Structure formats: structure tokens, C-alpha cells
Amino acid sequence: MHAFDVLGDPVRRRILELLAEGERTSGAVTAAIREEFAISQPAVSQHLRVLRESGFTTVRAEGARRLYTIDAAPLREVDVWLERFRGFWEQRLDALGTELARGKRARRLHDGTQGGGNRSAKDRTAGRAKEETPGG
Amino acid sequence: MHAFDVLGDPVRRRILELLAEGERTSGAVTAAIREEFAISQPAVSQHLRVLRESGFTTVRAEGARRLYTIDAAPLREVDVWLERFRGFWEQRLDALGTELARGKRARRLHDGTQGGGNRSAKDRTAGRAKEETPGG
DNA sequence: GCTTTGAATAAGACTTGCCTTATATAAGGA
DNA sequence: TCCTTATATAAGGCAAGTCTTATTCAAAGC
């Protein structure tokens, strides 16, 4: 199962959010999930299995308990895939770094700087921009 | 359809990669995809529809042609969701920025600095670290 | 006007994923 | 030992997604 398929399920996304806060037992995860989604314990267990088998989590036993920990490797893959699109909403993050994209776009509307996507169809009539690749 | 569901399909991911390079006609996308996946024209068209209806692309007509352009908004949502996990593989990106996580992890193994995930089960016996949240 | 090209839609088969109930397995405690 | 708790697995039903072929619709070109 591909990382994106795994993340396609809202229950699994929620589980990962929980695990992002720290290691949790299967029981704790199940309890939290069941409050939000009203599904059975086996259903949660099956989601945990998917996460396990696709590498999003690792498990260790402590008595009868199973302690789930996040393993970020697949999430990182997703992040890597996303990288090629980031230029569409982020101006290149140079030395300084973290200016809000929202602010940047607003500024672009004044000075006309090309920063990536979100150009409306109309804009094309105004220039010879045929290709639209990010991070130019 | 949720953004992650849309990205769950490899054909759609490929289409987005193509569109990331610039606007493409439906025909151009179809040709490229059919070389890689061996599916029919309607199949590609249906994927384009999904991308359209879920906001990943916008279309404009030029004669009989349909020109597809990427709309990064949903990708950005995905990126935002991923943000909470980024601390697991990135040391906080301060002023300087882009040190490879690989290098950082290696260093951590020496000085014991807490930087996020990927701590092995054994490590737990060495300290009172009960919670494991990124970006601490 | 007719035919061809570009692209979308329709209908139906097939597959896959998710959930449920029932059950298994193993640890903990009386 | 027996019962309970913690968790996982099994089997089957149902829903949703993706593919295919057939068809529609609109623009282009002769």
C-alpha cells in the first residue's frame, strides 16, 4: 500500500496525529478514535495494522500492551514528493526563511513579481508566460 | 473527495507532476500517461475530472482543446497537515536552514540531543522520555 | 454539410477497502 | 486455575473507486 493510500483514510490520519504527540498503547488509540469515529475496536486494530505494515509506526510489547510509536519515514517520502510543488505557494525560502506565503502573495499583487501558481486564466493574456513552473 | 484520496492514485500523482511543469492539454496529458500506464483515454479523462472537481486543477478551453493548469491549494493543505510531523525528520530550520536530516540524525547518535522521532525502542530504557513530540 | 479530431460522459464489470461480528491468543490478577 | 483485560485475526457484507467499451458533443477542416 502506497503512503498516500494509507493517508487517504481519516481514521489513520487521526491516529498519526495522536501518535505525533507521543507513544500510545493500542487501547489508548482505540479509545480516542472511538470517541470521534464510532467504529469498533477491531476496526481500529486493522487501521493500526495498516499503519504498521506500511511502515508508519513501529510497535513494541509491554506485557499484554502494544505500544505504538510513529515512524516518520513514509511521511517524509510524502514530503519529498510534495517538494516539487512547494514553489507554487512558497517564494523560495532563502536565508531568512519563514515569511508567510499569504503575505507574499498579497505583496505580489502590488509589484507583479512572479512567484508560482495561482495565476488566473486572465493573466495569461497579459504576458508571454507559457510555462508555469514553480521556484523560478 | 479528500485531497489525500485524490493523491492516492498513481496516475493522478503523475498527472500532477506533468502539470507542475506547466499547462498541458488534455490530449498531451493523455498521451504521456498512456505511455506509462496503458489505460484508455476515458480513464485519463476521468482522472482529470477528479483532479478538476477536487480543486487540484483548473481548466480553460481553447477551441476544442482543454488546457489544464495546476492549482496548488489542495497540495498546500496536504503540506500544512504534514507540518506537525516535520519535526521528526527536520531539526528546526533556523536562520541557516537546510542541513540534511541524515547528517543531523547521525550527530544525535553521538551527543544524545533530542530532535524528534526515529528513536529506537531501546533508547527508552536510557531516560525518562515518555512523550515523543517533534520540534522540542 | 459531412467527416474527423479532441475530449467528456454513461453504463456496467471488477476490484479493493473498510466495517461488522465472532473468535483467538496471551498476559494479569484473584 | 479461572476469569478478565488487551489486542489481534478471520470471514463475510457492502460501498466506493477504477477500468472498459460505447456514445455524445463540440470544434476544425475539407
UniProtKB/TrEMBL annotation, chains A, B:
Residues 1-90 form the HTH arsR-type domain. One of its GO terms (molecular function) is DNA-binding transcription factor activity. Pfam families: HTH_20. Keywords: DNA-binding, Transcription, Transcription regulation. The keyword ATP-binding does not apply. Residues 120-136 have a biased composition (Basic and acidic residues). Residues 104-136 are annotated as: Disordered. NCBIfam families: HTH_metalloreg (NF033788). This is Transcriptional regulator. It comes from Streptosporangium nondiastaticum.
